[in-house]
Amino acid sequence: MTSSSSPGSDTPPSPPDRAVLREAALAHLARFATTQKSLEQVLARRVARWERAALKAGAESEDVSATAAALKPVIQAVAADMVQLGAVNDEAFARARAKRLVRSGRSGKAVQAHLAARGVDAEVRDSALQDVVEGFSATETELSAALVLARKRRLGPFAGLPSLRHSGADDAEGEDSRLKQLADRQKALGVFARSGYGRDIAERVLDMEPEEAGMWMERLRSES
Q1: Which of 128, 16, 24 is nearest to 82 (CA)?
Q2: 170 in helix, strand or coil?
Q3: Are 56 and 117 in a shared domain?
Q4: How many domains does the chain have?
Q5: What is the pTM of this model?
Q6: Could you tell me if 39 and 28 are in contact, meaning their C-beta atoms sit under 8 angstroms apart?
Q7: pLDDT, position 223
Q8: Fewest CB atoms within 10 A around its CB: which of 1, 95, 183, 192?
C-alpha cells in the first residue's frame, strides 16, 4: 500500500477553468482598479498556484505544463471579457493613477515607468499625463510635482532656511558655510535626479522663494 506521505498519494487539484478564472477576475476587480495586462498577471498567478499544488500532489510535470500552457489564451480571453464589460479600462486607470502619482510628487518619467509596468500603451500614458492637471502645461505639471517632492523632503523653499538656494559669493560668509551650502545643494539635486526630474526643474525649485512655491501649491490644489 502506498504511504500517505508518498508523492502522488494526494489527488491532484483540478485546474482552474474559464468559469473559475472569471470568478477570480471579478473578485480582484471588486477590490482593486487595474489594467488588462495586470489582470492577466493576477490570473496567471492563480494558474501558477494550481501548478505548484498539482505537482506537489504528484501530477505529471508534462501534463501540468501542457494544461498551464492551454490556459494562457483562456486568461487572455477572460481579461478581454472584463474590458468588454467595462470593468477594466486602461485609459481611466492611467488618468486616475497619473493624477494620484503627480500629486504625490512623482515625476513624469516615474509616472510613465509606473504605467508602462502595468501594460498601459505609450499613447495612453502620454494622454494621461497631458490631462493630469487641468490648465497646466507639461512643464507646469512637472514643476508642481517637483514642488510636492520638495515639500516632502524639506528642500528648497520648504527647507526653512536658505541653504539650498543658489547664492553667489558673500564676504560675510565663511568658507565652511559656502562649502556646506554647495554640498547640501548637490544632495538636493541628487534627490530630484533619482526621482526622474531634469536639472532645469530641480534648479528652478531649489531657487524658488517660499511665497512663489506656496502659490504653485495653491494652484495645484485648486485644479485637483
Answers
A1: 24
A2: coil
A3: no
A4: 2
A5: 0.81
A6: yes
A7: 73
A8: 1
Distance CA 64, CA 54 (A): 7
Phi-psi region of 128 (alpha: psi -120 to 50; beta: other; left: phi over 0): alpha
Cell of 96: 486616475
Q: Confirm whether 1 is domain-assigned.
A: no
Take residue 139 and report the three cell numbers written for it: 512643464
What are the tens digits of pLDDT across the range 64-76? 999 999 999 999 9
Q: 126 is written with which cell numbers?
A: 502620454
d(C-alpha 150, C-alpha 165), whole Å: 12
Asked if residue 156 lies in contact with residue 165, where contact means CB atoms within 8 angstroms, the answer is yes
- Average model confidence (pLDDT) across the chain: 90
Q: What is the pLDDT of residues 87-115, one digit of tens each?
A: 999 999 999 999 999 999 999 999 999 99
Q: What are the b/e assignments for 184-209, b being 16+ CB within 10 Å?
A: bbeebbeebeebbbbeebbbbbbebe
Ranges 35-49, 96-110, 139-153, 177-191: which has the least confidence = 177-191
- Domain-ending residue, one of 88, 120, 150: 88
Q: Which helix (H) or strand (E) holds 151?
A: helix 138-153
Tell me whether residue 138 is in a domain. Answer: yes
The three cell numbers of residue 98 are 497619473
CB 58 within 8 A of CB 12: yes
